[in-house]
Amino acid sequence: MNAVTTIERPVDTSRLRGFVTALADLIACTRDEQALLESGRTLLARLIARDDWLPPEYARPDPDRYQQYLLHCDSRERFSVVSFVWGPGQSTPIHDHGVWGLVGVLRGSEQVERFHRLPGGGLVAQGSDLLREGEVDAVSPRISDIHRVSNGRADAPSVSIHVYGANIGAVERATFAPDGTPKSFISGYANRVIPNLWDRSRNA
Ligand SMILES: [Fe+2]
């Protein structure tokens, strides 16, 4: 009997390469967070406007928990780009980031619940939004840094592309119990290899 081998056609990674290059240029020009978020939002919206560039291995859900795949980390760890993949019914714990971040939905939708932490440590709910395909949200300690994110679709995975102002998988952050009790964590990443963005022989 002949073995059947399925070969996945490589996707065009030039869009992602263009995005990380533009982001590096932006960060070289300014460290002003508001300017970074505004211009970074435009770049991310442009990246997620088309859904033909993310290699399928970085959009793969896991039956047990949401996945966080590193797509690129700046060589000086000034920023990282990550794909988040949510299976049906999956959500994060309530958590913070400690750095600026942008979240853009590539596929499906995400429910975002925001929280404010009182000086005494308690959490106050600040509302909830459904983020749809093509939409971008921002987080940072300066504006609003604590949230819980869930898959907005009950019957299919959702995928979002996140950008953070650090190597986010290595940042010591906190999750919070509903009463506001913090617990520190370092997320790491689900993948051991990252996409090859730099083979220009495949696509200019
Ligand atoms: Fe988050």
Protein model, in words:
The structure is a single chain. The mean pLDDT is 93. This protein has a domain at 60-186: Jelly Rolls, CATH 2.60.120. With 204 residues, it is of the alpha+beta class. It has helices at residues 14-29, 33-48, and strands at 67-73, 80-86, 94-95, 101-107, 109-117, 123-132, 136-139, 146-151, 158-164, 173-176, 182-185. It has a five-stranded antiparallel β-sheet with strand order 1-2-9-4-7, with helices on one face. The protein has a three-stranded antiparallel β-sheet with strand order 3-10-11, with no helix packed on it. The protein has a three-stranded antiparallel β-sheet with strand order 6-5-8, with no helix packed on it. The radius of gyration is 17 Å and the shape is globular. A hairpin with a 6-residue loop joins strand 1 (67-73) and strand 2 (80-86). It is built from two helices and eleven strands; from the N terminus they run ααβββββββββββ. The protein starts with 13 loop residues before the first helix and ends in a 19-residue tail after the last strand. Helix 1 packs antiparallel against helix 2. The site of fe (ii) ion has 4 residues, from strand 8.
CATH class (first level) name of the domain at 60-186: Mainly Beta
Going by CATH, the homologous superfamily of the domain at 60-186 would be: Jelly Rolls
CATH topology of the domain at 60-186: Jelly Rolls
| Cα-based radius of gyration, to the nearest Å | 17 Å
Mean of the pLDDT scores?
93
Structural class determined from secondary elements? alpha+beta
Helix content: 10-25%
Principal-axis shape? globular
Are any ligands bound, and if so which? fe (ii) ion
Strand content: 25-35%
Could you give the count of β-strands?
A: 11
Low-confidence stretches: none
Biggest β-sheet: count, sense, barrel? 5 strands, antiparallel
Q: First CA to last CA: what distance?
A: 41 Å
